[in-house]
Design a protein that fits this description.
seven-stranded parallel sheet; Rossmann fold; alpha/beta
């Protein structure tokens, strides 16, 4: 069994070593602009970014694994083989990180820490009435494995939680909406919106002015999904108008965020450098190795990407 690992130079060697340790009978090598050194095609490709040339030579794999939950970078490659399953990471330590990121952001908003930070800058001493969690409506846009965990964590803190997904979900204590026909109802009056959708043709620009205006006055937007979900100019306009009070953004259309981007200069926007859910190599490799063993044993695996949906 031959496994080819394609990643940025700083990461490829340690990841290849982890795969070799997890699958000691495999021939593991790294991609450096050609096929396997011995000339044989790879049985599996593990890739951490959208390399433009790897699939010029590698065409007959049993599966392609991504070292990420998102797969847009891979599906965009014109030479990606159409008949080879693409398998994404389903967690690999990201769920706990993203739950904590959202909890911290929502609690900061509910406790008015951003307001008090602004008061500190102006040397203003003014106590504001406390807001109880049950009086705040939080919505999770994208109810997959991670989104579901986020919704449950918010509900456990006492927030009134809604969820939205492409297909109907049933989670106790959470009001679940599904399908485009229920999106407006889901958004209406939300105090906090958490976006964790994958980027697809259907979700591109879903957080536009029309959608964001349905939120409650003074609402806060959190995006940990993909930068392309958000129409950046519409967010800025609604912050300027006072409709929205702030945003916490971890993903952006252009990454790294350009030096001249207006988000940098907005105190109402918290910018983090795509760290809400960082892939943990040990857990990612353990998941990939388990799935390779299942494929080799003729068993089904989860996480296969539906290319029509884009995730």
């Amino acid at each position: 069994m031959r496994i080819l690992v394609s990643m940025p130079a700083d990461d490829v060697t340690p990841v290849a070593a982890l795969i070799g340790a997890a699958l000691p009978d495999a021939d593991v090598d790294t991609f450096r602009g050609s096929a396997m050194p011995n000339g044989h095609a790879a049985d599996y490709v593990v890739t951490g970014y959208g390399d433009a040339t790897i699939f010029d030579r590698e065409r007959a794999m049993k599966a392609i694994f991504t070292l990420s939950a998102g797969v847009g970078h891979l599906l965009a490659l014109p030479n990606l083989p159409h008949d080879v399953p693409v398998i994404r990471l389903e967690d690999a330590g990201m769920t706990g990180q993203m739950v904590r990121y959202v909890l911290a952001s929502v609690l900061r908003f509910s406790q008015r820490f951003d307001v008090y930070a602004a008061q500190q800058r102006s040397r203003t001493w003014k106590q504001l009435a406390p807001r109880m969690p049950q009086a705040l409506h939080a919505g999770v846009l994208g109810m997959g494995v991670i989104g579901g965990a986020i919704a449950r964590a918010l509900a456990a803190q006492g927030f009134a939680v809604r969820g939205f997904s492409r297909t109907r979900r049933g989670i106790e204590g959470i009001r679940c909406h599904a399908g485009a026909g229920e999106l407006d109802e889901f958004l209406q009056g939300l105090d906090v919106l958490v976006a964790i959708l994958p980027l697809t043709p259907q979700s591109e620009g879903i957080l536009d002015r029309r959608a964001l205006e349905r939120l409650a006055d003074g609402a806060h937007v959190i995006n940990i999904g993909r930068g392309g979900l958000l129409v950046e100019g519409d967010l800025l306009a609604l912050l300027d108008s006072g409709k929205l009070s702030g945003a916490t953004l971890d993903v952006f259309r252009d990454e790294p965020l350009p030096d001249d981007h207006p988000f940098w200069q907005r105190p109402a926007i918290t910018v983090t450098p795509h760290i809400a859910g960082v892939t943990l190599p040990d857990e990612a490799v353990a998941q990939i190795a388990d799935k390779i063993r299942r494929i080799e044993g003729g068993l089904p695996v989860s996480g296969i990407v539906d290319r029509q949906r884009g995730y």
